[in-house]
Automatic annotation (TrEMBL):
Enzyme class: oxidoreductase
Protein name: Arsenate reductase
Record flagged with keyword Oxidoreductase: yes
Position of the signal peptide: none
PROSITE patterns tied to this protein: ARSC
Catalytic activity from the UniProt record: [glutaredoxin]-dithiol + arsenate + glutathione + H(+) = glutathionyl-S-S-[glutaredoxin] + arsenite + H2O
Lineage, top ranks: Bacteria, Pseudomonadati, Pseudomonadota, Gammaproteobacteria, Enterobacterales
Domain of life from the UniProt record: Bacteria
Assigned EC number: 1.20.4.1
InterPro entries: Arsenate_reductase, Arsenate_reductase-like, Thioredoxin-like_sf
Listed Pfam families: ArsC
Length: 121
C-alpha cells in the first residue's frame, strides 16, 4: 500500500517526518503541496482521513496569513475553509502522512507511527 506525504522541504517537522519514514524503510510518494496544490476533493478526503472535527485543525493557526484573514474570528463553514486552503495552500498544516484510509499530522513526527502499527509482526 502506498504511503504519501504532503511535504514542504523548508519545514523542519516535514523534513524530520520524511527522514523517519525513510528510517522505517518506507519510500513515500512525496507531494509538494505548494506546487501541486490539492483540490477541494483531495482536501475533503484528507479532512476525513485525519478524523478532525474542525477544518481549522488542518490549518496553520499561528501563521500570519491565517490571522490576517481572521479565519478564527469568522464563522467559516467547512467548505469555506477548504476553499481557502486551495487559494492559500501555505495554510495547510504540515506534514500530512497518508496510509490507506487514514492520515496523521507529523507534529510531532513520531505521531505518524500509529499509521503503521498494523505492519508490525
Amino acid at each position: 500500500m502506498q504511503v504519501q506525504i504532503y511535504h514542504h522541504p523548508r519545514c523542519s517537522k516535514s523534513r524530520e517526518t520524511l527522514k523517519l519514514l525513510h528510517y522505517l524503510g518506507i519510500e513515500p510518494e512525496v507531494i509538494l503541496y505548494l506546487q501541486d496544490i490539492p483540490d477541494i476533493e483531495t482536501l475533503r478526503t484528507l479532512y476525513r482521513q485525519l478524523g478532525f472535527h474542525d477544518v481549522r485543525d488542518m490549518m496553520r493557526r499561528k501563521d500570519a496569513l491565517y490571522k490576517a484573514l481572521k479565519i478564527e474570528d469568522q464563522e467559516y463553514e467547512k467548505e469555506s475553509c477548504l476553499s481557502l486552503l486551495t487559494q492559500y495552500p501555505q495554510l495547510l498544516e504540515r506534514p500530512i502522512v497518508v496510509y490507506g484510509d487514514k492520515a496523521k499530522l507529523g507534529r510531532p513526527p513520531e505521531q505518524v507511527l500509529t499509521l503503521f502499527s498494523a505492519l508490525k509482526p
